[in-house]
Amino acid sequence: MLSTTCTPMHLLARRLCQTPDNYVVRQVLYRLGFADQLWRSKNFGRTGPFRFDISNLIEREIEASRQEDLDFTCMILVLGKTGVGTSATSNSIFGEVKSKTDAFTPGTKRVQEIVGTVNGMWVRVIDTPGLLVSSADQSLNGKILASIKRVIKKIPPDIVLYIDRLDTLSICNGDVHLLCTIRDAFRPAVWFNAILVLTHAASALFDGLHGIPISYETYVSQCFQMVQKAIRQAVGDMRLVNHVSLVENHPSYKTNRAGQRVLSNGQTWKNDLLLLCFASKNLAEANSFLK
């Protein structure tokens, strides 16, 4: 099993300029090792403790790095309210304009599949029209979600990105109702396989409660908790915890020496977001061995 899960995870991390010491990589490898132990015990009886053969991985890594593209594909479904940057995030993932965007009107009019390579890895993004929170627009939301279901019927997405804005985030009853509509369309499991993406992460932020200035990290934490609480209400599981990723899509925002877009703290957000997506796919494949 490790030949089809652990090794690709290392290769993917390397393509995304991440090391085995990365927290996400280490957590994935730990869980893959545990799954491998269960699988071997189930099929071959008792086995010894899992040991990670790093030398063998390095040899495979060097061999695979000689290939231009890896034998790997990840399908990502992008969902969000209109105006939050769903299409802009899709474009940023590929590093080029694949989907039309507009600052004042919805840029994406229909569900569309965008396919391309990112650092030698195949990525398929299902870009979708923005959803609306008004109760008067629920019929339109239903039509959009129905068209999404038709597109992903044959090939389910590996991960779902639910996108909202960090700089203007507010949660109302309409938001919770929208999350419930998404739940009903795709079943509650959709939220157990979702990453919360907050765009406009480099924008000037508002003060906290009562006008008292707060740190950037505190503001992000408060926003994440608001959305997470709404998702938990929609799912009916107060234990659910989703990963969160900060995104800045503005084309003129700063980059590092490698030309990668970075946040104010120097984080290369695209690589970190893709690592979360690829890690989720690897873990899902590992779990399938245990069924």
TrEMBL record:
Its cofactor is Mg(2+). It is a single-pass membrane protein. PROSITE patterns: G_AIG1. Keywords: Chloroplast, GTP-binding, Hydrolase, Magnesium, Membrane, Metal-binding, Nucleotide-binding, Plastid, Plastid outer membrane, Protein transport, Transmembrane, Transmembrane helix, Transport. GO terms for biological process: protein targeting to chloroplast; protein transport. It is found in: Plastid, Chloroplast outer membrane. Pfam families: AIG1 (PF04548). Residues 71-291 form the AIG1-type G domain. PANTHER family: GTPASE, IMAP FAMILY MEMBER-RELATED, TRANSLOCASE OF CHLOROPLAST 120, CHLOROPLASTIC-RELATED. This is AIG1-type G domain-containing protein. It comes from Taxus chinensis.
